[in-house]
Amino acid sequence: MNIAKKIADFAKYQRTMRELNSLDARQLHDLGITKGDIRAIARGTYVN
């Protein structure tokens, strides 16, 4: 994996974390996730 891909992947991870963390509990519930799920979702390892 080249460095440009790693940087792009990390930027995507940070954006996902920021966007999901900005949602309140009701909005997350509507999506079927909890605050505790956010890191796994951002990493791409979330299993429902």
TrEMBL record:
InterPro entries: YjiS-like
UniProt domain YjiS-like: residue ranges: 4-39
A Pfam family assignment: YjiS-like
Name listed for the protein in its UniProt record: Uncharacterized protein YjiS (DUF1127 family)
Organism (species): Devosia subaequoris
